[in-house]
Design a protein that fits this description.
The termini are far apart. The protein has helices at residues 25-31, 79-91, 144-150, 155-160, 162-167, and strands spanning 9-13, 19-24, 35-43, 49-54, 65-66, 69-72, 98-107, 112-121, 133-139. 23% of the residues lie in helices and 35% in strands. Strands 6-3-8-7 form a four-stranded mixed beta sheet. It has a three-stranded antiparallel beta sheet with strand order 5-4-9, with no helix packed on it. By secondary structure, the protein is of the alpha+beta class.
């Protein structure tokens, strides 16, 4: 029997980032519990950034735009395992080199998390098999401020990913 995403086990973290327990993902969302997440900025070989609009079925920020693919780290997963899984699930990218570009914590009225951010260079082809991506576009770095200003982007990716893109080689 296949489990639903809401039943997946997630590690709950304390303020220091230490694991304090396990809960179902649905409980983590309902109680806004601190957890681990990964974000992967996908760049083309030409330096453009892949931005995407999340599907309307997402449990958090449905239909909003994002600067990175990624998601919640499952219980027992390493950061890199989670990043690789998310790349494969969301855009069909397997065996793509990852470069860590930083980490940080983020909290707002919707979510509380500790994240690790990566950059991957991948031109496609893309396969949006899991239904989490509604549409995607390449955006040149010079056009990114206009995109961000004209659309609703995830505040967490603006806070954690965008500054690291501007400072990573």
């Amino acid at each position: 029997m296949e489990t639903s995403p809401g039943d997946e086990q997630v590690e709950v973290l304390d303020e220091a980032g230490q694991v304090t327990g396990l809960v179902a993902r649905s409980v983590m969302r309902a109680r806004r519990l601190r957890h681990r997440s990964v974000f992967i900025a996908v760049m083309s070989h030409d330096g453009d950034l892949l931005v995407h609009r999340r599907s309307d079925s997402k449990d958090l920020w449905p239909g909003w735009w994002d600067l990175a693919v990624g998601g919640v780290v499952a219980a027992g997963e390493t950061w890199e395992q989670a990043a690789r899984r998310e790349l494969a699930e969301e855009i069909g990218a397997d065996s793509v080199p990852l470069v860590e570009i930083g980490s940080g914590a983020y909290s707002d009225s919707e979510v509380s998390l500790v994240a690790r951010c990566y950059r991957a260079v991948f031109d496609g082809p893309f396969v949006f098999a899991d239904g989490e991506v509604a549409e995607a576009h390449w955006v040149a770095p010079a056009d990114l401020p206009e995109w961000v200003g004209a659309r609703r982007f995830l505040p967490v990716s603006l806070a954690l990913v965008l500054p690291r893109l501007e400072t990573s080689p």
